[in-house]
Amino acid sequence: MTTIYNFSAGPAVLPKEVLQQAAAEMLDWHGSGMSVMEMSHRGPEFMSIMAAAQSDLRELLAVPANYKILFLQGGGLAENAIVPMNLMGRKPQPATADFIHTGSWTAKSIKEARKYGNVNIAASAEASGFNVVPVRASWNLSKDAAYVHICSNETIDGVEYHFTPEVGDDTGEAPIVADMSSQILSRVIDVSKYGVIFGGAQKNIGPAGLTIVIVRDDLLGHALPCCPSAFDWKIVADNDSMYNTPPTYAIYIAGLVFQWLKRQGGVAAIEQKNIAKAKLLYDFLDASDFYLNRIEKDCRSRMNVPFFLRDETHNAAFLAAAKERGLLQIKGHKSVGGMRASIYNAMPIEGVQALVNFMQEFASSHA
Ligand code: PMP
C-alpha cells in the first residue's frame, strides 16, 4: 500500500497516534460513557480536558505566569478584527497600529485593522515581491502605536522571521502582536518578547475551529465599546475561556497533540527535526535547475516551502504524478501559483525524503 504524506497548508496533517487515540476514545471517553463531543463544557470530564490542554500548552511554550492562554473561535482572520478591538483602546482615539507587511496574511490584517483605527505600514517587503522579512533596522515605527503587528510566518509566501523582533525605545511600550498561525509550536520562542500571540489551530495544533490567543495581563481590559463580549479578551480570560461554549472537540484533539509533542521531547526537539526537514527540501531545490524557490535564504519558512517548476507547462503532470505516489495537497495557493509543501510538526522527515525522491525522478524524466 502506498504511504500517504499530506502536505496541506491547513487544515493539515495530524500525528497518526493522536488520530488513533481519538478514534479509540470516540464513543466512550475514559469510561465516562460519553464521546467528548457529547459532554457539557462545564462538566468535570471536559473541565479536566481543558485544564490539561492549557497547562500542557503553557509548559510547551514556557508561557510566563503573567500571560493568559485563551481558547477562542473565529480563526486567524477573526483575530484581525479582534486584536484591534482589544488593543486600539489603549491609546486616545483614533489610535494607530504599526504593521510590518510581509505578504498575503499581513495584507488581510492591515485591511481589517483599518476599520478600527489608523494603520501605519512601518516596513513592507512589497517591492521585493514579498520574498524577505524587512530587517528590524528599517522599521519606521510610530511614536505612540497601540501595538505593532507582525506575521511571524507567511503561510502562502513562505517567508518566516528568524529573529525575535525587539521594540522598545522608539515605540514607547507598544507590544508586539504576532500572528503565529503557521509557526506556533514549530520552534522555541521567547513569549515574554510579545504582547499577544495568536493563531488558528489547524496547522501545528489540531483541527480548525480553535483559535489560540496568548496575551499579557496588562493588555486585557482595553476593548473598544464595539467589541463583542465573546471576543473581549478580559471577559474571556475572567471566564477561563468558558464565557461562551468553547470548541470542545477541537480543544480535546489539541490536548492530545500537546501530549504527543511532549512525548517527542517538546518544542526544542521538534525544532531540530523541523530544521532538518526544511534543509533537506531547500538544499534539493537550490541544487536543482528544474525547480525554483524565490525566497531569500535567511527568510525562508521552515513550515511552508513554496516552489515552482521552471517550466510550468509540467505543473498538471507533476501534481497528478505526486498524487499517484501518495504525496497529497502540494498545489500552491492560487494567489501565487506553483507548488507548496507544508511540512508541519506532524510531517515526518520520511515524508520530505519521499517528496524529494519523487521530485528528483520527475525532473529526470521531464528535463
Ligand atoms: N494567518 C495566517 C498566517 C494563516 O496561515 C491563516 C490561514 N492559513 C490565517 C491567518 C487565517 O486563518 P483562518 O482561516 O483560521 O481564519
UniProtKB/TrEMBL annotation:
UniProt domain Aminotransferase class V: residue ranges: 4-355
GO cellular component terms, A-Z: cytoplasm
GO biological process terms on file: L-serine biosynthetic process; pyridoxine biosynthetic process
Keyword Amino-acid biosynthesis: yes
Protein residues bound to L-glutamate: 42
InterPro entries, sorted: Aminotrans_V_dom (IPR000192), Aminotrans_V_PyrdxlP_BS (IPR020578), Pser_aminoTfrase (IPR022278), PyrdxlP-dep_Trfase (IPR015424), PyrdxlP-dep_Trfase_major (IPR015421), PyrdxlP-dep_Trfase_small (IPR015422)
Amino acids binding pyridoxal 5'-phosphate: 105, 155, 179, 202, 244-245
EC number: 2.6.1.52
Domain of life from the UniProt record: Bacteria
Gene3D superfamilies: Aspartate Aminotransferase, domain 1 (3.90.1150.10), Type I PLP-dependent aspartate aminotransferase-like (Major domain) (3.40.640.10)
Cofactor annotation: pyridoxal 5'-phosphate
Residues bearing the modification N6-(pyridoxal phosphate)lysine: 203
Compartment(s): Cytoplasm
Main location: cytoplasm
SUPFAM superfamilies (UniProt xref): PLP-dependent transferases
GO molecular function, one term: pyridoxal phosphate binding
Cofactor info, note text: Binds 1 pyridoxal phosphate per subunit.
Involved pathway(s): Cofactor biosynthesis; pyridoxine 5'-phosphate biosynthesis; pyridoxine 5'-phosphate from D-erythrose 4-phosphate: step 3/5; Amino-acid biosynthesis; L-serine biosynthesis; L-serine from 3-phospho-D-glycerate: step 2/3
Assigned keywords, A-Z: Amino-acid biosynthesis, Aminotransferase, Cytoplasm, Pyridoxal phosphate, Pyridoxine biosynthesis, Serine biosynthesis, Transferase
Assembly description: Homodimer.
NCBIfam families per record: PRK05355.1, serC_1
Function: Catalyzes the reversible conversion of 3-phosphohydroxypyruvate to phosphoserine and of 3-hydroxy-2-oxo-4-phosphonooxybutanoate to phosphohydroxythreonine.
Family matches, as HAMAP family: SerC_aminotrans_5
Protein's name in the database: Phosphoserine aminotransferase
The organism of origin for this protein: Undibacterium parvum
Record gene name: serC
